Every structure is written in C-alpha cells, then in structure tokens.
User: Fold these one by one.
Assistant:
Number 1:
Amino acid sequence: MTRADRILIAAIAVAALLAWPLAAWAAGSDASSVEIAGPAGVSVLRLDADATVAVDGHLGTVRVRIEDGSVLVADSCCSNHVCVRTGPISSPGSVVACVPNGVTVSIGGSDRVGLDARIR
Amino acid sequence: MSGSTLASAEVAVARTFADSAHRTAIGAALLACACVLGLLESALPAVLPVPWLRLGLANLAVVAALALVGPRTAAFVSAGRVLLVGLASGTLAGPVTVIASAGAIASVGVMCLLASYGPRYSMVGWSAAGSAAHVVAQFAAAAVVLHSGALLVLAPASVLVALVLGAGIGLLARMIVSRLPSR
C-alpha cells in the first residue's frame, strides 16, 4: 500500500465518519412509528399497534408485520429474500428494503410525513 | 519501400494483432471469473450475518483487468458482469440491475481515474476507493429507484465497511496478479 493509498483511504473514512451524525440526525429519534413506502405511496403506522400490512410491490405482494414494538418483512415474492432475512427492526432510522419490489420499511417515519406529502 | 522496412512493418502489425488477441483473451477470462464470483456471492448471503452485505468478490476480476490490460478492458469486464449476472439471476430488467449498474459505473470510473496517476496509487487504493464509490452510487441510485431517502441512513457505515472489504480485495488482487507469469 502506497502513501497516497493510505491518505485516500483515511480521507474517505473521515468523510464517512463526518457524515454519520448527519445520517443519524436525518433518521430522527422517533421510534414510535413505522413508514412503509411502496410504488403506490407511503403509509405511516404506529409501532406499538400490532398489525399485518400487505403492500403491493413491482413483482407482487410484500407482507409487513408489526408486532411487539418491532417490524419485519414476513413474506415477499422476490427471489433473494434479503428483506425477509434482515429480520425485525425497532431502533430509529433502521430500514428494511425489498428492492425488486420497490418497498422500504423504516422506523421513525412520522417526522418525514410532511416532506413525503409535498413530494408526492 | 525497402525489404527490411516492409519486414519490420509486418512484424509490427503481427505484434499488434498478438497484443489485441492477448487483451481479448485476458478480458474474456476475467469476465468469466467476474460472473462466477458474482453468482457465487449472490448465493452467499445465507451464511453472512448481515443479509445485504456483499464482499465485492467480482471486483477482484475488474481490479486484475485494470492492472493487467487497462481501463477499457476493466470497463468491459465490469459492464459484462452486471449484464450477464443480471441475465442469469433474472433481475436484468428490474431495479436491482439499475442499482448494480450505478455502482459498477462509479466504481470503474474511480478506479480508472486512480490508475491513470500511475504508481502513486496501488491496487489496494484503487479497490478501496472503488468500493466506497460503488456503495455511495448504489445508495444514491436506490434512493432514486425506491423514491425514498430512508436507506441513505445506512450509507456512512456501509462506506466504512466497503473501505475495509475493498482494501482486502485489492490485496488479494495484488497477490494474484503478482503470481501470474509475465508475458
């Protein structure tokens, strides 16, 4: 590894570390709601109310389950099932995405509702 | 034109053809390696603790192509890999390929840029910076494709992981390239 390699890697690492608090701030601290975004739109649900939601994705239905203060993708018609294998999430800013279906599930969506309402 | 000038011109043309054939053969072999590594990696998530984490094994072939042949072959290997792995895994027409393409273009672009500086940067630097660019471009593309910035929250941590994994892939590529017989 050359000196220039080390400087470049350190510079990228510092940039990522500086961006970290920004990402944490953008994620917010609200762990009481869950935002489910799909091709048809966005819905925000309470994390403390157990529910099962069927979201229409690009390929088919993605089943999202809220239980015991956490949310998970219970079932998806995608081929690799990365979303299902991610398991339950509950901390602010945590995200599960089913990319082939265009569905994202994130904790703390309530503070972004206004922004989404303007965009969509 | 004298006889000796004609002969040297013929030798030069033959050498050019041989070089071109050599570049094509290396590029094709590395494309095959990249596809196998890419498909192998797509079967790996079941054994990794974080399901969306990728080691970037296919980048090994792209780094080797850049070191052995040059930027055009590296771009060919990278683009061919995205196309063929997308075709084999049935995701070619979907958002997965759009995101993979964004990552591949950014990664090859950064690596070729660093390689153009000559020996100042090594394969480790190319691969680490290429992996970081790959991750940033993929998150940006995912935000556009999914119409949601929620995933960007994961970007800083993913860049740090990509730096470590990219440096590892660069070291491995350097080891492999240094053991290949010189032509």
Note: Chain A touches chain B through 38 residues (CB under 8 Å).
Number 2:
Amino acid sequence: MIQEPLLDVRNLRVRFETPRGLLRAVDGVSFSVAPRETVGIVGESGSGKSVTMLSVLRLFPPLARVSVSGQVLFEGTDLLRLSEAELREVRGAKIGMVFQDPLTSLNPALPVGEQIAESLRTHRGLSRGAARRRAEELLELVGIPDPGRRADDLPYRFSGGMRQRIMIAIAIACEPKLLIADEPTSALDVTVQAQVLVLLERLQRELGMSLIMISHDLGVIAATSRRVLVMYGGWIVERGSVEEILERPGHPYSAALTRLVPDLDQPRDEPLVPIPGQPTPVVGHMPGCRFAARCGYAMDRCREETPPAVALATEHISLCWLSADGIRPAPAPTPAGGRR
Amino acid sequence: MTAVPAAEATAAPLMEARGVTVRFPVRGGVIVPVDGVSLQIAPGETLGLVGESGCGKSTLGRALLQLVRPAAGRVAFMGQDLTALDGEPLRAMRRHMQIVFQDPRGSLDPRMAVRRIVEEPLRVHRLAGPPEAARAAREMLALVGLDAIYDRQRPSQLSGGQLQRVALARALVTRPKLVVCDEPVSALDVSVQAQVLNLLIDLRARFGVAYLFISHNLAVARYISDRVAVMYLGQIVEEGPTDTLFARPRHPYTQGLVASVLRPGLEARDRLGAAARLVTGDVPSLLQPPTGCRYHPRCPFAQERCRTEAPRPEPVGGGQVVACHFWREIETGTARLRSAAAGAPSG
Amino acid sequence: MLDARLGRIEDVEEARALARQGTLSRAGDLFWPAVIVALVLLALTGDALAPYSPTAQDVGARLLPPFATSGRGFHLLGTDPLGRDLLSTMIAGTRLSLFIGATATFIGLVIGVGLGMAAGYYGGAVDRLVMRLAEAQTAMPMFLVAILFLVVLGPSVFNVIVLLPALVWPAFARLVRAETLRLRETLYVEAAVATGCTGPQILWAHILPNVAPRVAVLTVIEVGHVMLAEAGLSFLGIGVQPPDVTWGLLIARGRPYLAVAWWLVTMPGVLLGLAVLAFNMLARRFEVASGSAA
C-alpha cells in the first residue's frame, strides 16, 4: 500500500545572491513526508536544513535576493506556485511551524492568548469570544496552568519552556496536518526538553499530524523520529530509518556525527573524534562532494565528481562514492582525525 | 582516566571557596543567585559544574574570580583570600586565574587583531616586552591550531570555533593555574565542539592547568571533568568523582538530569516518557525560592520535612556528597513517593 | 519576527552583511568627499592658484560685479570696495577658516572624549561633575559669553581657537559617555577586566577604538558648526581681525555694500554654506558606511 505523501519536495534549490557569488543553500533536495509520520532532519549550521523548511512556506525576509526552484507539493498543490494570499491560507492553517527561540518568535507586545486567538480568527473565522475560549483550551492542552488568567500575560512573564509550549499552541491552533519544528528544544533546559518533546508527541497522536523535527541533536532525533534525513552543505547526504542511520550509517558524515558527541552511556575515556575544519557555506561553483574537504575517506573522485545516490538497504540511501564502492565507514575513529 | 578522590584532603587545594553568596538587587526585591556555596579545586584538577538555566553556575564562576564580588564568604586561591583583595593586588592575581566565556565572538574586542588580543595579558602584567609578547602569542596561537595567517585578522573574519581557540590562547598565555570555562562549547556547532573539547584536554595535559568547567550539558561535563558538582537554584545539591556521580547519582535532581539526557540510541524513545515523569515543572523564580529544600516542589519523593527544613550536605562515601534528607531511602528503593504535606507540586 | 530568526542561519546573515558592504562603491557617492578634498587642497595651495594677490588694491577697479574685466584682467567673482579680487580673497580666507574650524573642533574633541570616557567608565562623582559642567555649558548662551570673553581679552585668532572648543566639547562628551556606558557592559570589556587590565588600559585599548567611528561622524558635523560660529564672531568684528581673513570676515566687510554689491556677501556665504553642507553630507556617509545609520 503506497500512501499519497502529505508533503512531497522535489528537487528544491534555494540560492542567495551575495557579492561573493551565488550561495547554494539548498541544492537539489527531494524528500517526502507521509501522513502521521515523524521525519527527523539532522544537520549543523549551513547544512540547509532551516532554509529548506523556510522555503516550504516561503518565509524569507523581503530584502534577501533569493531564488527558489523545484516543487513543494502539499496535498498535491505546489506551494511555490501559490500567490501570497493563497499561501497565507496554508501557513498556520494547514502547516504549523515552531521555531527555536520563542523569545524572538513571539510578539513581545501582545498577550499570549491574543496571539493564539488571532490565528483562529483569521483562519477559522471564529468570533472573538469563541477564539478566546479555544485559546484557553489550547493553553491548557499544552500544559500551561491557570490558562484563563495567563492568557492575558505578555510573553516575558513566562519561562523559556512555557514560551515554547505557547509557540506550540499557536502552531497547532488550527489543527494543521503538518507541524514543522525547527530546533524546538535547543534553547531549553534538558529537563524541560523531555517534557516538550513528550507534549509534541502526544499532540501529534491526538491530532493526527505529521511532524518534521529538525535538530542537530541526535538524541532528540532518536527519541522522536522514525525516518531521518542527514543534511550537509545543502544536500541530503543520507536518508533512512532511524535504526539504520544510528546503527549502520553509510555516509562518513553520519558516521562521524555519532562519534562526535559524548554519550553518558559510553565509557568516559572513549575519545571524541572531531571532524576537521568547519561547516562553510558553498558560494559559487564547487565540484564534487560537499563534504570532501572534511572527510576522512575522501578520494580524488570525491573532489571531482558529484557522488551518486546509492541504496544500501530498502529506503536507506547514501550519497557517497564510498557507498558506491560498497564500503561502510568504519566504527573505529576515522583515519583523518586531528584538528582544524 | 578514573579519578582517585581520596587524597584531596591532604594536598593543599588550589582554590577553596567557603560560603560564597552573591546578591543582586532587582525590581521587587533581592535575588540570591549563589547561596552559601563551598567547593574546592585541587591543582591540575577539572571540576565540572553542571546545572540548568538559573542555577547560578555562571554567576558562581564569576564570583570566584571576583568579577562579581560576593556579598559573603571567602575564596582562598594560591594562599590568598581573594575576597579581601582589591585594586592592584587583585589585578596582579589575575594572571594566575583566567576565564573563557560562552560567547566567543562577544568576548573578543571586534576592533583588535587576533595576535594583539593574545598579547594583551602579557603586556598588561608586564611579563614580556613587545617583541617577546608577539613571539609568545604566536606560539600560543599555534598551539591552539591557528596559523600565522590569522594573526592580523579581526574577530569578524573568524568562525566561532576559531574565535574560541583565540579566547583559549588568551586565557593560557600567562600560564595561569586555573581557568574558569563558562560553557565554552555551548555556542559552537557540534562538529566543532569536539575539536575544542579535545583542545582543552590537550592543553590541560601540557600545562597542568586546573579547570572549573561550567556546562549545562552533562555528557560534555562528564567527558572532561575529574569531579562534578551539581547546582540547583544557587546551591550545590550533589558533588563527587565523575564516575561514581554518574553511575550512582544520589540526589533526585541529579537522577532526573541524568535520565533527561537523550542518548542517540534506539532506547531514547522509551526513555523519553520516563524522563518527562522524573522532573516536572519549571525552575522556580529566584525572587521567591522554595522553602526548605529548594528542589521539593519538583521532587517525586518530597515529604513535609523537605518543605520545612533545608538538607545539609552529607558525605555518602567514595568522596561523594549529597544534600538530601532521604538519599538513603531513595537509593535502597524504600523512599515514599511525594506526600501531600510537601505542598502542591509545580508543573 | 522572521528577520531575527533567519539571521541565525549563518549563510543568510553573511549574505546580508556582504550586501550591505556594497553600498560604498557607486560613483555619485564621491561628490561630497571630493568637495572637502578640493577645499583642503585650496587651503594648502591657494596662494599659488589665486589669480591675483588678495591684498592688491586697485581703487580704479572697485566694486566690479562678477565676470567683469578691469585694467588688471578678468575678475570671476568681482572686486571689493578697495578693488581687491574677490575670488583671490576668498581663496586666501579658505585656509584660516578651515584651520580654525579643524583646530578648535579637535581641541573640543580631545576634551570632550576624555571627559566623556571618564564619566562613562568611572561613574559616580566624576560622572556627576562632568555632566554638570556640560549642562552649565549648554545652558549658557554661548554666543554672548564668547562675545564677553573676546571683548575683554581682545579678539584674535588665538583667542578664537581657545574659545570655540567650549562650544563643542559637551556634544562629544555626551556621545562618548553614552557609548562608554554601553561598551562597559560588553563581554569583551569584562574579559579585559578578567585579564587584569587597569581602567586606563581598558579605556585606551578597548573603549576608545570602539567609540571612534561615532566620534568621527560627530567631528565632521562639529567642524561645520565651529566654522559657522567663527564666521559669526568674525562677522561681529570680535573674531578674526585684519589682515587675517576668513570667510566670516569677508561677509562682514561686504555687508555695508549689500545694496550695491551683493556679490561681496553672497559669494563667501555660498562657499561657507557649501563647506558646512559638505561636512554634514560626509558625516552621513560615515554613518552609512560604519553600519550605524538608521
């Protein structure tokens, strides 16, 4: 049984014009999200993960010189071809978004209840009274105590964890089919993080939503996602189920990520293996694999030719010459360790 | 790499803080972000200081260095009481105790060239003339992995990871005995974090410097520290050698913290639910800290005594110390769950 | 909301910063700086460029209008009551006008920046003292005070240069004090304290370089103010005295003849206005380039 995907991104390319040349933030990204599914996207800064999601809803600032090509099919309609008015219908009502820093994402001058109610009035056409009541219900749903009174409070009166819950309430107010969460817990304390993730999971189940979880934290991805997309330099370098990616990564970058962060369950003296260099935005034309400059397994071919997409298992695909040769990155530290 | 805790008491500590308290007047009253904290750091030792936002760990770090002056308490460092020093004598001590901040870009003067930034401590403490200082700075920068090409560049031209290396070079150029690292890798990309952490370890081995490693990330603190102290709302609730503290956390808050860290493994899903149940609610405001044990509103084992009486730190063996009334019961599994007499739970 | 969030993506932020840098390179933007450069060159080399000596009198050619020709030759801007070529005297006046403007502003800058930094960094009694002085200064009708001083002490170029800084130092002090207060709270100043720098070391190495851009903008504006003030004083006869000549003095000399020889007042006036305008436009360009423009 093949379901019609809820979101189908095809060959998305996002380019920014800079004085130094064309910045290819997203370069040929394709993926899909089924109904009621949680997909995780892992990547660091410059990987294009946030820009991809912003492109889905075309949320760019007016000054940026951006060109977006490809298709973003949501329930069959290409969002990139919609007019601004039609797009506004989709934003908030069909697709909700939760950002990393609730402090800058919430309007500091409006009471939180009002921010939720606004969305309801605009998209659902509710009356003031009905919208206010529903807003209070939503605050309760996300775990804000005493919602009747607190709906009139301004954002600064809430802690970080509560503000994030309020952001979630705003995002799900119109019961969207798809919720995009961009690093929703990165700015939160670890004990609050668990509660917010549990909340997201519960809401997803109750509302039957799909969830795209973007994070640089593999632990968050492991706890929430079924499928994972690993992004680097504007590409999806590996995709697969969470088991495959964590336990049998095919791409050197994914493999390196798992060795990069200290794990409470591993012995303390297991060394961290850094990836040399730093993520740099790709400006202008760059031949070969985007990761080659930092990759311990890089061959000459990697620097010259774009790597192919290789199927390592059903639904497990790696964009790598190493994979094409049938080799997996070793579980031991990579040969090209060392600093910067 | 396992620490041997027993000998601390006999070797003279490099830094010893007793009853350090910091008070800030704010609108609506006074907050006490650090409340009667005592700790010790042995020479060459790395003490991890972990806790979540608002626990006071950054303020404590600054208070120890007298960047924020404590309202009460003593801080003995290299045989001197820092709290009693001021002006020139305090300034002179600073060459032995340095700090690396969380925000690498903010902590470096945007108008100063990289090498000048690293020369500054040497010039300020008159440890070297201009040519000497330039040479020493270049050496230090090379040690942290930055080529000469960066010497004349300004901070805006370097990445976050590179800037943090510059900050490290600046901190170590006077060969201090102690460096306070305040969340040094939290603002960096994951792939760069590992580089900087390994660098910290290398430099520690080379110079024998002690670190006070402040972090909200438990796994990172565990990786680099010999001993760890856990802070909550201005107080240290538990402290001990890293291995034992993480293997057998005694304080409910520490247990909650450890359980809340999501491992990049398949069990993460199942653990998520358990983690969310172990610690409820949000951190209370410092303006009205809870009575008795500060953790009691969020603790699954709180009893009436926890609401009325603040627990004193008790040694529990193996160099570990806990401040909890019921740590024995919790450990043996005989602790009673939260009673109504403990008051309404938060969250 | 969206801009703040997108700014966190390194690539986009970098792109925007780069885009901002491109604003300096358009050719039309060089006009006002060119005017200033021209004036400075004129001040330095004017004597050689002037068609006639500024003091050469020719009573037979007095009060000729612009574009007139006399026995000596062509007078682009006409002549004054004593037959001196106006263009030449204006060129001669350029040097002193600019010199007084620059020097007095510079002295005011040194005083103002020094006091402002001390007030902002040390606060307390130092701050109160400096701010009281600045308030007192601003409250007094500077022009009348200047008149009083100059009448008592005697008008001269030297006295004017000593007096005019009083007009501008409060502006510098206030700006620098506000900037210092802000910079004092930055992390890198805290880092400098942690390193063990003394107050003066921090002021010199960290605060001063970081207030410099905004001080530069203000300096350029204040030069314009000072030049206008000097012109006013000279116009009243208590500033620069003959045989020294500034544009203000020229305007004063021409005033009695306004009805019959309008060019004597208008030409120096236009030049003065042009110079002040050029300084203000330059200040605006500095602001844009340093990224602190609105």
Note: Residues 145 and 163 of chain C are 10 Å apart (CA to CA).
